[in-house]
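hi support,

uploading two proteins for the ticket. first:
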Amino acid sequence: MTGKESTMKEKVLFGKEKTLFHKEKSIFGKEKNPSNILPAKYTLDSRIQFRCHPGVSCFTECCGNIKIMLTPYDILQIRKRLNMDAAEFLHAYTEPTYLEKTDFPGVMIKLTEEGLCPFIKSKTEGCMIYSDRPTACRYYPVGMANFHEGAQEEQSSEQFYFVVKEPHCKGFEEDKVWTIREWRQDQGVDKRDEMNKGWMELVMRRKSFGYQATLSEQAKRMFFMASTDLDQFRSFVFDSSFLKTYEVDQETLDKIREDDVELLMFSYSLLASMLFGTNDVKVKPEVLKAKVDAIKKDQEQKGKTMEERAEEDYKKIKEEWKKTKVFQSN
């Protein structure tokens, strides 16, 4: 992606938050209408009757006209499958959006002109990246609810599952019966949940603040970079002044320099510290002290009268002038 293209994409992402948010569809592709959600709470041991395979008449219909959000781990796995770097993948297969009910920027799969997922090979052959398909695709038709929004960190959250039954889906007419637990294991959801956990906690935490708490543009850019482009994030860690500011032990540095999953986990910790003030990744004491001193000095300056500040400025100019004279005489 060229610098111009990257800038244009950023403008689209960071300049049209309200428009994008209000046009959102649910993760299952329909307008936000709870009528497709069965009115029941499911546990891991609850049973469902469902099976999806090329033989059902609706095969791949759920893969069109849908908003498929990508988690950081989804992006990592799919681009590795396609042998693409992060920037190349994002440009070719995604478009920017905002995560539901937050001002966190993210990406979703860019559909074809026909409104289909670009990874659908054909009506009968299905998904070309099936073993590396996104988390959202693995969950369907089972969703998970986690009522932790607004709760204190030490409080427990209520977690349960729900089933989405859309009119077009014939998978519910199949004779396969299994528990939610068995379904999750079969679809590889547990591994995805493990990899996405830290990131989802950030999203849930942000949701609890609501739109009354404004997120700075700098914070949005940081979240977007860490969540979508590990190549750029690694460069940020090792090639910028980051390590002069934050404490990161050598063992962690060795891991994140080469291991993408370790870097992903580190990004979650860093975002938690930067956005919510946790102690997962700490600022170096000397840097913190310098910042505190600068704030105190600034506050002292603001508390002085204009005459006092002018007098200080005059003294500084006079001192600089004397130094210049001494230098010139030598």
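and the second one:
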Amino acid sequence: MDHIRIGIGVSSIGRFLPLIGEAAGLFEKENIAVEIVNRQDEEKVVEDIAAQTTPVGTPNAPSLIFSRLEGTDLVIVGGVLNRPAFYLAAESTSITGKADLKGKRIGINQPRRMAGMVMLALLRRWDFNIQRDLTLVDLGLNDKSLEALRAKEIDAALLPPEKAFLAEHEGFRLVADSLDLDCHWVPLATTRRFLRENLDLVARVASIYKESIRVFQSDPDTTLKEIRRWLPALANKPHVLEKCYRLFAEQFEPALTPSLSAIQSILAEVALQDPRAGEIEPASLIANVL
């Protein structure tokens, strides 16, 4: 039997495919003993993949690109989510649309991370000048945006689906989303060195991710049971849980194919912070194992 440790960066449904696959017996079917490690930090997942502590994992795309710029050999072997699914949640009485953000306090986490990068991209798209038109409130490395909204420390924030739909349930208004941004969000990644030495194992893991997407989409009972297990805060909120399920069922890439245009777009976003990213060819980040 082969053994593999798989790293996930955050407790998000977008990272739960190996948990779904394990619950459905897919790893056992492939004769793979799997350990799934939730690092609760995107940067640590990248570090663990590079060090082969967890040689396969799902970081966010910017973290992978920044690591490549620092000299790692991380490579994308599957496109789990080719578009970012974030929602702008806002205080509901004074903000009814994007135009009402002018003069307001907008929470943002680190710009190097996906939500922060997407927030900046959306503000540019909406023609806001971040120095003049609104106030960005730095919420640091660990995203505390929903807590800051509840405490009225900010007026709006970009949230992942689980927190966004929970915020909506609590009375906040969802005024916009990032679904039409063609920016790669969640890759399945390893290193080129590990791939060279373990091609068959990585290919089987990728095939399990692909099959897990099919299970996710076709077997909601198994899927929702696992989501409730790993996100207990949603277990007693069936409406929120159902909205999250429907969103990810639609957004997962069933063929696990990375989108070159989406990778090009996220490279362009990273290049605004580190121009060297503009020199990377999207295809050079991908290794086809399926």
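thanks. also noticed: The domain at 2-83+183-285 is CATH 3.40.190.10 (D-Maltodextrin-Binding Protein; domain 2).
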